[in-house]
Amino acid sequence: MNMRDLIPWGRNESQAPSVYRGADQNPFLSLHREVDRLFDDVSRTFSTRFPSLGQLSPFNGGWPKLEISESDNELRVIAEVPGMEEKDIEVLLDDDVLTLRGEKRSETDDKDYSERFYGRFERRIPLGYEVEDDKVKASFTNGVLTLTLPKNPNAQSKVKRILINH
Q1: What DSSP string describes 95-163?
Q2: Which residue has the higher pLDDT, 60 or 136?
């Protein structure tokens, strides 16, 4: 159900408040309606997309930003965490799920305006492979966390191909 369906005057323009009548002729009201529709669509998309990669919202876009690559022998995860130090970040490996969490604190409390991200974050990345946890390597340079996770050669992928019969 769309939020606009809950508004009683949304379907019948004659019942709409006078400020909204004739919005098709007024470019500003038409733009306002389209922007509202865009935000409705974006909020719906972010709440249903990629829930396993952590909390996503239109405001943080899934922070920290990740780059994940895979080879036959290892997985590599690179996370951008600008303005943070390695002591502010916690990396956990539990079963086949890699968790990155931390908190970015503000340096000052007296800000008039800020677009910078502050607060706690957590990203959970399902790996899909058993990892040799005693050989995992992590490095942190210039706000970039790089994790190298060697795959266990004896473990098989948990992904199973299912044949489709005609």
Answers
A1: TTEEEEEEEE--S-S--S---S--EEEEEEEE-SS-B-GGG-EEEEETTEEEEEEEBPTTPPPS----P
A2: 136
